[in-house]
Amino acid sequence: MMTRLTILLLGLLATAAAQAAPPKCSTQMLDGHLAELCVSTAPFQHDYYSLKIDHALIFVLPDDYVEDVALTHTLQDDEAIGFPLSRQGTPTVKISGGCVPVSEQREVDGKQIAIESARRCSFKWGNVDVLKDLIVHFE
Q1: Cβ proximity of 23 and 40 under 8 Å
Q2: Hey, which of 26, 66, 71, 91 would disulfide with 49, CB 3.0 to 4.6 Å?
Protein backbone atom coordinates (compact mmCIF):
# COMPACT_ATOMS: atom_id res chain seq x y z
CA MET A 1 0.00 0.00 0.00
CA MET A 2 1.34 3.43 -0.94
CA THR A 3 1.84 5.88 1.83
CA ARG A 4 0.92 9.55 1.50
CA LEU A 5 4.61 10.45 1.42
CA THR A 6 5.22 8.09 -1.52
CA ILE A 7 2.28 9.56 -3.42
CA LEU A 8 3.49 13.10 -2.68
CA LEU A 9 7.02 12.29 -3.88
CA LEU A 10 5.72 10.69 -7.08
CA GLY A 11 3.59 13.76 -7.72
CA LEU A 12 6.57 16.08 -7.25
CA LEU A 13 8.69 14.01 -9.62
CA ALA A 14 5.95 14.03 -12.26
CA THR A 15 5.58 17.81 -11.92
CA ALA A 16 9.33 18.40 -12.29
CA ALA A 17 9.48 16.14 -15.36
CA ALA A 18 6.53 17.94 -16.94
CA GLN A 19 8.23 21.34 -16.45
CA ALA A 20 11.46 20.33 -18.21
CA ALA A 21 11.61 22.02 -21.61
CA PRO A 22 12.71 20.09 -24.67
CA PRO A 23 16.40 20.64 -25.47
CA LYS A 24 17.29 23.72 -27.50
CA CYS A 25 19.59 22.55 -30.30
CA SER A 26 21.78 24.38 -32.81
CA THR A 27 23.83 22.92 -35.62
CA GLN A 28 26.88 24.13 -37.49
CA MET A 29 28.77 22.65 -40.45
CA LEU A 30 32.54 23.29 -40.52
CA ASP A 31 35.10 21.63 -42.80
CA GLY A 32 32.60 18.93 -43.74
CA HIS A 33 31.78 18.03 -40.12
CA LEU A 34 28.35 18.53 -38.58
CA ALA A 35 28.26 19.73 -34.97
CA GLU A 36 25.07 19.74 -32.91
CA LEU A 37 25.00 21.47 -29.53
CA CYS A 38 21.90 21.01 -27.38
CA VAL A 39 21.05 22.67 -24.08
CA SER A 40 18.56 21.00 -21.75
CA THR A 41 17.00 23.18 -19.07
CA ALA A 42 14.62 22.71 -16.16
CA PRO A 43 13.53 25.23 -13.53
CA PHE A 44 15.87 25.49 -10.53
CA GLN A 45 18.34 22.96 -11.97
CA HIS A 46 21.60 23.12 -13.87
CA ASP A 47 21.52 23.39 -17.64
CA TYR A 48 23.07 20.42 -19.45
CA TYR A 49 25.07 20.81 -22.66
CA SER A 50 25.41 17.91 -25.10
CA LEU A 51 27.77 17.92 -28.06
CA LYS A 52 27.47 15.63 -31.07
CA ILE A 53 29.94 15.60 -33.94
CA ASP A 54 28.90 13.85 -37.15
CA HIS A 55 25.92 12.33 -35.23
CA ALA A 56 28.18 10.78 -32.53
CA LEU A 57 27.56 11.89 -28.93
CA ILE A 58 30.81 13.28 -27.51
CA PHE A 59 29.70 14.53 -24.08
CA VAL A 60 26.92 15.75 -21.81
CA LEU A 61 28.09 18.23 -19.17
CA PRO A 62 26.40 20.54 -16.65
CA ASP A 63 26.76 24.29 -17.19
CA ASP A 64 29.31 24.60 -14.37
CA TYR A 65 31.77 22.36 -16.24
CA VAL A 66 31.28 23.31 -19.89
CA GLU A 67 33.34 26.53 -19.82
CA ASP A 68 36.74 24.86 -20.29
CA VAL A 69 36.67 21.31 -21.65
CA ALA A 70 39.66 19.12 -22.53
CA LEU A 71 39.20 15.45 -23.46
CA THR A 72 42.30 13.47 -24.43
CA HIS A 73 42.45 10.12 -26.21
CA THR A 74 45.53 8.01 -26.88
CA LEU A 75 45.11 6.10 -30.12
CA GLN A 76 45.81 2.39 -30.20
CA ASP A 77 47.19 0.73 -33.34
CA ASP A 78 44.59 -2.04 -33.14
CA GLU A 79 41.50 0.11 -32.52
CA ALA A 80 38.54 -1.59 -34.16
CA ILE A 81 36.23 1.37 -33.68
CA GLY A 82 37.64 4.86 -33.85
CA PHE A 83 36.50 8.34 -34.70
CA PRO A 84 37.86 9.43 -38.09
CA LEU A 85 38.61 12.90 -36.67
CA SER A 86 40.94 11.31 -34.10
CA ARG A 87 43.33 10.17 -36.83
CA GLN A 88 45.42 13.31 -37.34
CA GLY A 89 48.87 11.72 -37.47
CA THR A 90 49.65 12.02 -33.76
CA PRO A 91 49.54 9.36 -31.02
CA THR A 92 47.06 11.43 -28.97
CA VAL A 93 44.25 13.75 -29.90
CA LYS A 94 42.40 16.28 -27.77
CA ILE A 95 38.90 17.69 -28.00
CA SER A 96 39.08 21.11 -26.40
CA GLY A 97 37.11 24.31 -26.08
CA GLY A 98 34.10 25.42 -24.13
CA CYS A 99 30.99 27.52 -23.77
CA VAL A 100 31.90 30.75 -22.03
CA PRO A 101 29.38 33.15 -20.51
CA VAL A 102 28.34 36.28 -22.40
CA SER A 103 26.96 39.08 -20.23
CA GLU A 104 25.00 42.22 -20.96
CA GLN A 105 24.31 45.25 -18.82
CA ARG A 106 20.77 45.55 -17.48
CA GLU A 107 19.18 47.97 -15.08
CA VAL A 108 17.88 46.37 -11.90
CA ASP A 109 16.52 48.57 -9.12
CA GLY A 110 18.14 51.62 -10.73
CA LYS A 111 21.60 50.00 -10.91
CA GLN A 112 23.44 48.66 -13.95
CA ILE A 113 24.49 45.05 -13.42
CA ALA A 114 25.97 42.40 -15.69
CA ILE A 115 23.61 39.47 -16.32
CA GLU A 116 24.59 36.32 -18.20
CA SER A 117 22.48 36.36 -21.36
CA ALA A 118 24.14 33.75 -23.56
CA ARG A 119 27.06 31.36 -23.99
CA ARG A 120 29.60 31.47 -26.83
CA CYS A 121 30.73 27.96 -27.74
CA SER A 122 33.79 26.82 -29.69
CA PHE A 123 35.43 23.39 -29.86
CA LYS A 124 38.38 21.91 -31.69
CA TRP A 125 39.06 18.22 -32.35
CA GLY A 126 42.81 18.15 -32.59
CA ASN A 127 43.63 20.81 -35.20
CA VAL A 128 40.11 20.87 -36.70
CA ASP A 129 37.51 23.45 -35.70
CA VAL A 130 34.27 21.50 -35.21
CA LEU A 131 32.23 24.31 -33.59
CA LYS A 132 33.16 27.99 -33.81
CA ASP A 133 31.61 30.97 -32.06
CA LEU A 134 28.13 29.49 -31.78
CA ILE A 135 26.06 31.70 -29.49
CA VAL A 136 23.36 30.08 -27.37
CA HIS A 137 20.94 32.74 -26.08
CA PHE A 138 18.96 32.36 -22.88
CA GLU A 139 15.26 33.12 -22.91
Answers
A1: yes
A2: 66
pLDDT bucket at 14, cuts 50 / 70 / 90 = very low
> What is the dihedral angle through the alpha carbons of 74, 77, 79, 84, rounded to the nearest 10 degrees?
70
Q: How far is CA 132 from the centre of its chain?
A: 14
Mean pLDDT, range 31-46, rounded to an integer: 93
What percent of the residues of the chain are helix, what percent strand, and what percent coil, each to the nearest 5?
15, 55, 30
State the Cα–Cα distance between residues 115 and 117, nearest whole angstrom. Answer: 6
Which contiguous run of DSSP H or E holds residue 133? strand 128-137
Output the pTM of the full model: 0.79
DSSP 44-58: TS--EEEEEETTEEE
- Looking at the DSSP bridge assignments, the partners of residue 106 are 113
